[in-house]
Amino acid sequence: MTAAPDNPPETVTGTAVTAGTAVATSAEVTTGTAVTTARCKNCGAALLGRYCVECSQAADVHVPTTGELIHEAMEGLTHADSRLWRTLVPLWIKPGKLTNEFVAGRRVAYVPPFRLYLIVSIIFFLLASLHTSHTNIVQFDPADSQAKGKVSNCADAGFEVNGHPSWKPRIVHACEEITRDNGNNLLHVALATGPKAMFIFLPLIAFLHMLMYWRPRHRYAEHLLFLLHLHAFFFSVAIVLLLLIDAAEAWPAFDTTASVLATLLGWSLAVYTFMAMRRVFKRGWIRTFFKASVLAIVYSVVAGLGVAGVVLYAAMTL
């Protein structure tokens, strides 16, 4: 008979081995006579499986190998790509479907609305920032420098703001900066300010849109979701328009085709908005057409004021 050892070996209950690494799948780990609870490294919750039930982090948090990093990156890219395409197809060919799917609770298959809007808008503003202005925003004729009553430079323009004489130097400086680089710096500052202004513009338009659908009433969040998807489509069309402009500049023979496509895309915005409003808010053709017309007027006024404010702010910060 062999005597039992004084110090029995350590035993672990309920373990799973993945890639040669032991992962605790039970809330209790026994070491000798002591009982220790295995906890998540991220939030400290007790581990009951391969993933934390509180924060979803994997229990196995060892430093990955290069091969594991590459595998994780490829898996993330393919999953994101699949989800993105499943979102972009209905966004383009089924107006309003994404909003209906989100409200109905079918959300896992699609990119979340706010993330989709951010992705598309960031791509648009990034591409737009790469373009340069070819239009003379402010231009003076040097030949008028000797003519009486003619304005030949910004200092002679006579910028005056009643009650705010201190604004004149800033306006003159902005005029000189715009003249110096043909407004390219103004364009870049305005494009950098645009995304921030959209965070004010979208909630405001959503509120005004909600007033149009008072009975039966829809929640404000539904109108905001609708406008997020709508503007994701708007920005995606704007991206295609920018690419058409670049293509027409690179291949002059493509200019006529690009103009036709740009016109069709421009009209598609109105048709898309009408179809999306009818699918999401389920009104008749005539009532939807009336509401879409009102939305177009309100949108144009608010957007015009917003663009003017952004340009003015950009000019004052040059």
Total strands: the figure is 4
**Largest sheet geometry:** 2 strands, antiparallel
Mean pLDDT: 79
Distance between the termini: 92 Å
Radius of gyration, whole Å = 30 Å
* Strand and helix order: EEEEHHHHHHHH
Shape: globular
Number of domains: 3
- The helix/strand class is mainly alpha
Residue ranges: pLDDT <50 for 5 or more in a row?
Answer: 8-31
Q: TL;DR of this structure?
A:
The chain has 318 residues and is mostly helical. 59% of the residues lie in helices and 5% in strands. A two-stranded antiparallel sheet has the order 1-2.
Overview of this protein structure:
- The protein folds into 3 domains: 8-62, no CATH class; 86-136 and 182-316, no CATH class; 142-174, no CATH class.
- A hairpin with a 2-residue loop joins strand 3 (28-31) and strand 4.
- It has helices at 66-93, 97-104, 113-129, 167-181, 184-212, 220-250, 255-281, 285-316, and strands spanning 15-18, 21-24, 28-31, 34-37.
- It is mainly alpha-helical and 318 residues long.
- It is built from 8 helices and 4 strands; from the N terminus they run ββββαααααααα.
- The protein starts with 14 loop residues before the first strand and ends with a helix.
- The chain has a two-stranded antiparallel sheet. Strands 3-4 form a two-stranded antiparallel sheet.
- Residues 8-31 have low confidence and may be disordered.
- 16% of the residues are buried.
